[in-house]
Amino acid sequence: MPRIEIGAWADAAVDWLRSNVAWLFDAITSVLNAVYGFFHMVLAAPEPLFLAGILAVLAWWLRGFLAAVLTFLGFVLIDSIEQWDATMESLSLVLVACLVIVVISVPLGIWAARNRAVSGAVRPVLDLMQTMPAMVYLIPGILFFGLGVVPGIVATIVFAMPPAVRMTELGIRQVDAELVEAADAFGTHPRRTLFRVQIPLALPTIMAGINQVIMLALSMVVIAGMVGGGGLGSSVYDAISSVDVGLGTEAGLAVVILAMYLDRMTGALNQRVSPLGRRALAKAQAALGGWKFLQWRPATSLAMVGVVVLALAAGGMNAFGGKSENSAAGIGDGRTINLGYVNWDEGKATTYLWKELLEQRGFKPKAQALEAGALYTGQAQGDIDVQTNSWLPVTHASYWKKYKNKLEDYGAWYDKTSLEIAVPSYVKGVKTLDDLKGKGKEFGGKIVGIEPGAGEMKIVKDKVLKDYGLAGEYKLQQSSTSSMLAELDRSIKAKKPVAVTLWSPHWAYSKYKLTKLKDPKGSFGSGDGIHALGRKGFSKDEPQVASWMKNFHLEEEQLTSLEAEIQDAGKGHEQDGVKAWLKKNPGMADKLAPAPGAYAKGKDAGAAPNIGYPSWDEGIATSFLWKYVLEQRGYKPKMRNLDVGPMWTGMSTGQVDVEMDAWLPVAQKQYWDKYKNDLVDLGAWYDKTSLEIAVPSYVKGVKTMDDLRAHKDEFKGKIIGIEPGTGEMKRLKSKVLPAYGIKDMKVTEAGTSAMLAELERSYAKKEPIAVVLWSPHWAYDKYDLTKLKDPKGTWGANNQIKTLANKSFPKKFPEFSKWLKNWHMQPEELASLEQAVNKAGTGHEEEGVKKWVDAHPGIVDKMAPVK
């Protein structure tokens, strides 16, 4: 029978929805995030004991004194086992999901109860929603809504909704028909009949449905921890993936306490809001006799007073002397960085290492463990900023092939890895993968694997087993890294043969005596590098962090010692292990994440050189760059903005010590010839400059200076110039214009800023304009311009941009002089610096320079090295 491609249809449907209805998913994400944020803010704000007291008062109001005591003790226990924050996150998720479910399901159930056609159409949909495996909902949830709380909430809504619809329909249908007929007979409007007769009588059944919704929602919220949903789900997932009995017990106990509280309270709520429930409660209390005080419940007004008093007390503590979190200062300024990792030792170790480093630099990083597939999908969608656990080019090849256009590869921070199958060294006669053949019974017919989404598992299944003829003899057992290690430990203690998927580096080779099975056929490939990956655009959003990642590297000894410290610190204390490792490796934090601003002082710190600069973009940008660099080295530079002529004169007399914008040997030749005996040439920091006339590319037929002569009337007989004292302006008038017979064209002399303003105005109106320009200049990036060719060579040879100083400068500032002699800038560096300064605006040049320096870590040490 031909295969029905239901899976392919589902893929196509999901792709179509992502392409055409993304706006709807974005809107849902925004709304649910906002609602969740509100609930979590309310629940996380009070001190745990105060919120436990509030919940206890509610339990007292709903169920009595004993329930209140047990509630308080239960939540105190949650706090004592350090699961309070996770519990509040889970409670927030449940409340948001249940709120949405009630708003949708109760009206839908009422409609189904009143309309047989609706009931018939809804029933199979509810069957599908309720019987589909819960984890399946997470797959489209990730694709539509990304990682985090929203896919968990949406999956919870879909999974937990059916009982509310079914029980609402059932409750309405079970209302005595004679009562409805009586209401109709008295002329009651159907809407009033619904709200005054049917719903009050159906309320116990509806509340039973809502109770089931809450229980299902809590179970689904735990499952949602697999996609970064947070809360107790993350704790449970961490415990399972690391086979941590202690964490699993604590997280499970917190789930049980929360589930019991929600179950008992929603069940008791029916007795408070339903007439039938209140009657049943009165009968139960009457039957207690002398034990009535245990079931005494405060009036609603008294309970509300208690809740308000506790809430105000909690708010007062937070406002006066409670713990307050100031926004982090430093490079990060409190910005959030989302880190993701597969729960492998090197991934966990390096992720928590970077979490600690980023916190030290003022960021607010968040780390979450995910399956490999969810990690790559989430990162491609922008939910995860950085991961440090990508094994390329082999292990994670399938993920890289699928998502490489949405990711940034920052390179390998660790080389010389290998994938392998390993056996204990006491297993004799098994040295290669070939040796496994025929020994399936000895190993129980299985190879113990790790997470099913790991690239190594795919390689073993698709290549290794087939290449070595092991496919029918061995079964690759899917589990998790921690489960595999637990099985390895158990087997070694019992001296039983076991074959496991492993990789190098791994601390297991230090703890146990293992044999890496040789791979003569090369099925595992040539080995991977462990890469750091960023989401698309992360290097633009956080250039400093991306630069750190690109330069990140650890040796094997460093990595294994870091893993050992984290293992010793224990689950939930990974950062304590990182801190202990950093203490044993002083200077490592500054090496991995060098912080701009923490610079050593220069030998001549305190010196105050006078720096002159013209109002040209490269002059402004480089002069303020050197001002910043000198200040980091302890200098106290003084800045002077001068026209070209006065600056050369001031430099020759010693009033100006140095300038970085001398165009030689052509553009400023006349000044050099006049003052060269009083100056010293510190060398060129930029080559391949040019002087030219430029016109917008929309001006047709003007490609050379000869064309300009032919079309001079189109330009109203004028060329927009710059400062009159510049060498370019003098050369234009004395050589260029006469050589091309356009000496009669008027050259304006308003200055560089005025020229650029006129260019922008004319360009916006698509008017012809000819301007004096030079290369490099950011205008060529902003506008589409044509450099007019100079076939007669009147502009002369290309210039270099040099640093010149007064002849006494090298003796007065020997360290600064040495730095300038070795200084050089690449075209892309200068262009980006000019753009940063221009973007900051006049009067804010230093801010633009600082942003550029932050985006180019190490530039201060490169320009001004200090031992």
UniProtKB/TrEMBL annotation:
The chain crosses the membrane at residues 21-43, 49-78, 90-114, 134-160, 201-227, 239-262, 302-321. InterPro entries: ABC_Gly_betaine_transp_sub-bd, MetI-like, MetI-like_sf. Keywords: Cell membrane, Membrane, Transmembrane, Transmembrane helix, Transport. Gene3D superfamilies: Dipeptide-binding Protein, Domain 3, Glycine betaine-binding periplasmic protein, domain 2, MetI-like. Residues 87-266 form the ABC transmembrane type-1 domain. The keyword Membrane applies. It is a multi-pass membrane protein. It is found in: Cell membrane; Membrane. Belongs to the binding-protein-dependent transport system permease family. In the C-terminal section; belongs to the OsmX family. PANTHER family: GLYCINE BETAINE/PROLINE BETAINE TRANSPORT SYSTEM PERMEASE PROTEIN PROW, GLYCINE BETAINE_PROLINE BETAINE TRANSPORT SYSTEM PERMEASE PROTEIN PROW. This is ABC transporter permease/substrate binding protein. It comes from Streptomyces olivaceiscleroticus.
